[in-house]
């Protein structure tokens, strides 16, 4: 999609449609020429400008065919998330009506970036495997122009949303195509395309250096790999930020086999790893545009594995000596994500970053606690958690903090025969005990724990049905935009 800013009068725009936003009961604020044309239609359809209402008006005498009025709802409630959500609905309506070249007037929507994000996110479609394509979306946009908009913010919004859509594609790609062998190839392609450093470790290295990752993935015919991506600014970096993603390309549960209804969507268990690649996709596009961070160095770490039953599979009662020397008793082979992440977090810590963020579809318990639309956020540094959480409120990627300092809960992951158990003794508080397990593998820098955040994205990584700017069921690409916004804010503050 080509996205540009249109700096001339909307009346001379040549294309299919022009879109104007309005507040509820705010039609009178539209340009006079627009109001004159749309008012009779608004009266006929009882259009009030409520959030998500869209009015279509055919016009003549211009070099475009129709005008759309999109309602933002009550003025006092409009924020970035509203602008993003309504823009996504506009995108779906415009595509349904087969518009290919459109102009969006964002004057009433307040936030140029959110509108740009909404248009791109709302246009998402995944029909790669359909022989008969979805006619409404298969060709997509040709050009989208924005007027009364901040050009830099429009471009940033496009880059972030396209990176999220890229992540959605990866999550939605089935496990017979993306597996521990092919996933690293995608990382390599990103590195080559944008000039990043990449280090991909083969199964022999994983077996020797990451016993936890190896144990989880050794039962699969396709053995585990490890990926390390690096973005370095042109000058000397003042901070180093690490992102860690859970990369289970398929999770059958292993020998503790999942029931059929919980196995069907397990291609999404790589969502955290896909988000890491999405972050680097965004960094690469920003680099091409001359907008990349100049003061921060970014590292991405992914352990990729398939958790499958077989003669080589790890078993309940196995004891694994992890990369950092701690021993883990396997209580359940379906609590595999924390074991793979343990080794990857140790490796990330060894690179001495200033911050570590891990994203993982880790526990069903987090979905039970917070629902399908909200991620759990945990951390060992309250300032870091607060900063990241506040950014997520602007991006609309919903998070809620859960506790990490309850010593009674920590007793749940102690083992009688090893240092740790990979499953709590009780069914209760499973998201908390999983986060506490991960904390055991976060290292120190200069004698202090590295500030670390764990984001359990088990709920919002997958959309069971369309909502807000997720127009399709399936992978959502959750976490990418918040991560990049955090990177950019740290770059500015360095």
Overview of the structural elements:
With 494 residues, this protein is an alpha/beta fold. The chain has 2 domains: 146 residues, Leucine Aminopeptidase, subunit E, domain 1 (3-Layer(aba) Sandwich), CATH 3.40.220.10; 333 residues, Zn peptidases (Aminopeptidase, 3-Layer(aba) Sandwich). Helix content is 35%, strand content 21%. It has 15 helices and 21 strands. An 8-stranded mixed sheet has the order 7-8-10-9-13-19-14-15, with helices on both faces. Strands 1-6-5-2-4-3 form a 6-stranded mixed sheet, with helices on both faces. It has a 3-stranded mixed sheet with strand order 11-12-16, covered by helices on one side. Helix 5 runs parallel beside helix 9, helix 10 packs parallel to helix 14 and helix 12 crosses helix 15. The mean pLDDT is 96.
List keywords for this structure.
35% helix, EC 3.4.11.1, 494 residues, 6-stranded mixed sheet, manganese, Aminopeptidase, 21% strand, alpha/beta, Leucine Aminopeptidase, subunit E, domain 1, Macro_dom-like
């Amino acid at each position: 999609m080509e996205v540009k800013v249109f700096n001339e009068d909307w009346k001379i725009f040549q294309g299919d449609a022009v879109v104007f936003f309005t507040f509820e009961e705010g039609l009178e604020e539209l340009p006079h020429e627009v109001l004159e044309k749309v008012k009779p239609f608004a009266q006929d359809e009882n259009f009030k400008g409520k959030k998500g209402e869209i009015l279509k008006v055919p016009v003549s005498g211009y070099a475009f065919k129709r005008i759309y009025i999109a309602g933002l709802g009550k003025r006092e409630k409009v924020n970035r998330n509203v602008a993003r959500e309504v823009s996504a609905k506009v995108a779906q309506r415009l595509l349904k009506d087969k518009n290919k070249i459109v102009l969006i007037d964002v004057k009433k929507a307040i936030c140029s970036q959110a509108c740009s994000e909404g248009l791109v996110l709302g246009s998402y479609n995944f029909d790669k495997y359909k022989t008969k394509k979805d006619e409404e979306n298969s060709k997509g946009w040709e050009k989208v122009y924005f007027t009364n908009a901040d050009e830099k913010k429009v471009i940033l919004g496009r880059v972030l949303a396209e990176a999220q859509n890229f992540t959605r594609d990866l999550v939605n790609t089935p496990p017979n195509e993306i597996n521990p062998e092919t996933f690293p190839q995608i990382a390599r392609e990103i590195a080559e395309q944008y000039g990043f450093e990449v280090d991909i470790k083969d199964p022999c290295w994983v077996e020797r250096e990451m016993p936890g990752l190896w144990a989880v993935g050794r039962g699969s015919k396709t053995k585990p790999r490890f990926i390390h991506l690096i973005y370095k600014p042109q000058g000397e970096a003042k901070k180093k930020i690490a992102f860690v993603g859970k990369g289970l390309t398929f999770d059958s549960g292993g020998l503790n086999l999942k029931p059929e209804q919980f196995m069907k969507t397990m291609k999404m268990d790589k969502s955290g790893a896909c988000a890491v690649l999405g972050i680097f996709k965004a960094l690469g596009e920003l680099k091409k545009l001359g907008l990349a961070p100049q003061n921060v160095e970014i590292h991405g770490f992914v352990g990729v594995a398939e958790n499958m039953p077989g003669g080589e599979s790890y078993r309940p009662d196995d004891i694994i000596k992890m990369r950092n020397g701690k021993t883990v008793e396997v209580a359940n082979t379906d609590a595999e994500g924390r074991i793979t992440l343990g080794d990857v977090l140790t490796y990330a810590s060894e690179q001495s970053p200033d911050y570590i963020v891990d994203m993982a579809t880790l526990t069903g318990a987090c979905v039970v606690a917070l629902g399908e639309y909200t991620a759990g956020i945990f951390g060992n540094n309250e300032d870091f958690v607060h900063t990241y959480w506040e950014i997520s409120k602007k991006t609309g990627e919903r998070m809620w903090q859960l506790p990490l300092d309850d010593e009674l809960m920590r007793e749940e992951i102690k083992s009688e025969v090893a240092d740790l158990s990979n499953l709590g003794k009780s069914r209760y508080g499973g998201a908390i005990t999983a986060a506490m397990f991960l904390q055991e593998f976060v290292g120190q820098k200069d004698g202090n724990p590295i500030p670390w955040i764990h984001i359990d994205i088990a709920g919002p990584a997958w959309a069971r049905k369309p909502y807000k700017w997720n127009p399709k069921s399936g992978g959502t690409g959750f976490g990418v935009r918040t991560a990049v916004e955090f990177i950019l804010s740290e770059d500015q503050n360095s």
